[in-house]
Amino acid sequence: MSVVTVQLGQCGNQVGQELFDVLCSDALAGHRKTYSTASCERFFHLTSQGDLEARAVLIDMEPKAINSSMTKALKGGRWRYGEASHFSQKQGSGNNWANGFCVHGPRHKDAVEELVRREVERCDRLAGLMTMMSVAGGTGSGVGTYITQCLRDIYPASFILNHLTWPYGTGEVILQNYNSVLTLAHLYQLSDAIVVHENDTVHGICSRLLNIKAIAFTDINRVIAHQLGGVLQPALTPDSNGVYSLNPLGELVSALCCHPEYKLLSVSTIPQMPSSSVPYSSFSWTGLLKHLRQMLISNTKMEEGIDWHVRPPPASGRIRSVAGSSFNTSLANLLILRGKDVYCAETGNFEEATIYTPWLSPAEAFSAWKSPIPFNKYEKSATLVSNSQALLGPLEDIVRKAWNMFASR
């Protein structure tokens, strides 16, 4: 089953292009026909000329980001965007959420819906829709929220996954706190799941793990694309009977969003290192999963600087620990393992009841997907998608700043 991606605004189009680049290069690497076929069918359409064309619609109120993304895809030579799968105008939303949601969105609704409809009709079977946007600007957040609302009305039975890029805490846009609160308030009523990447966290990964000195948005987008690819590429679920999942978004949502009021998902990936170091590195599943579990319970964003002193509370203190600040309580976790000897990996430490809320059993709260195919040149890699308290801090900061701006007029 296929996923149609809707890229919105400058951020959504830049991250989307990097994501399709990762998906394509990973799918076509080595001799792995079944995996490659499953990945390409999910994210690409094979044209009559034998070219791979992304199942994507590009939307922005200015043409610059779209033109850049389409040009980069063509230069890569492995895949491309559809020649008529984009929509742009000459005037942006000015970082104004209301301008995007109330003006540009309704004005261009019909044209965008037609582009999405054409892309959906090219799918043999639709697994769902994925939108990619920033919550800080006007087009990505304002127009993106309006388009998500339209998609929910047109495809009421389809899964909708939103990917949001969270702004820097110090601020790129003066109105970013307003824009973020308005975007989340609307998307929470429309989406089945919301995957969030924080710019501050990804910037730290680029600096401390990848040793990048002059960090550009291209570097940040590549890290986001790598982590998303680890989630979205084909994997074997416990119920798949050796066949790659045919309903990737549905199984992701059912594994993680068991309560309709909790939809914010964070992503952690291990290992992450400069590409030049990968051929000379070796990892064990025991070591990788030990670090990833501690990252989860201590709410550490990367494997450097993990707080090893944080421990799960005793069973009698599980309810009280929900309000604590050091231990990160989870509602649900999805662990995706890829690479050599994946079936020897022991995941029992993620199934401890003390990690989760007391009203959900670990058997229902934890899921593990596996694939023996190495991902993006890493011999072994683990990605954890978590529905936990990890995003409460950034969310509370944005709400507080928005209220302070409102109170001070």
From TrEMBL:
Q: What is this protein called?
A: Tubulin delta chain
Instruction: Give a GO biological-process term.
Output: cell projection organization
| Entry keyword annotation includes Nucleotide-binding | yes
Q: Which residues form the Tubulin/FtsZ GTPase domain?
A: 40-239
Instruction: List the PANTHER family hit by this protein, alphabetically.
Output: TUBULIN
Q: Where does this protein reside within or beyond the cell? A: Cell projection, Cilium; Cytoplasm, Cytoskeleton, Microtubule organizing center, Centrosome, Centriole; Nucleus
Q: Which organism is it from?
A: Oryzias sinensis
Keywords associated with the record? Cell projection, Cilium biogenesis/degradation, Cytoplasm, Cytoskeleton, GTP-binding, Microtubule, Nucleotide-binding, Nucleus
| CDD domains for the chain | delta_zeta_tubulin-like
Q: What is its main location?
A: other
Similarity remark: Belongs to the tubulin family.
GO CC, alphabetical = centriole; cilium; microtubule; nucleus
Q: Which InterPro entries match?
A: Delta_tubulin, Tub_FtsZ_C, Tubulin, Tubulin/FtsZ_GTPase_sf, Tubulin_CS, Tubulin_FtsZ_GTPase
Q: Which domain of life is it from?
A: Eukaryota
Purpose: Acts as a positive regulator of hedgehog signaling and regulates ciliary function.
Query: What are the GO MF terms of this UniProt record?
Result: GTP binding; structural constituent of cytoskeleton
